[in-house]
Amino acid sequence: MNALWLRFFKSAYRREPISGFIAIVGLVDLAIGGIDQNLSLSVFGVSVFGIALALRWWQIQNVPEQSQSERPQYILPDRSSQSPLPMLKPSQRPSRNDRS
């Protein structure tokens, strides 16, 4: 059960960090209020979680759609205008371990 909650929290936080953080705070307040049987903290947790869901919905609605016909613009050219570097050959000098 813990792994499932951890996966849910990670995925919620990675998608939208601000609304994910607010939702996690609301759920924690709700859990603490439920355990302590504190009605005001539970109501506060539910309201904060509701605000987080509304914020997430608002962010999803404001995402502009990208057209498929636009190609991405690359800064670097496809091919380099310079010639490739020459291949290096191993040195003919003996290594330090071979010197006696």
From TrEMBL:
Residues 65-100 are annotated as: Disordered. It comes from the Bacteria. This is Uncharacterized protein. It comes from Merismopedia glauca CCAP 1448/3.
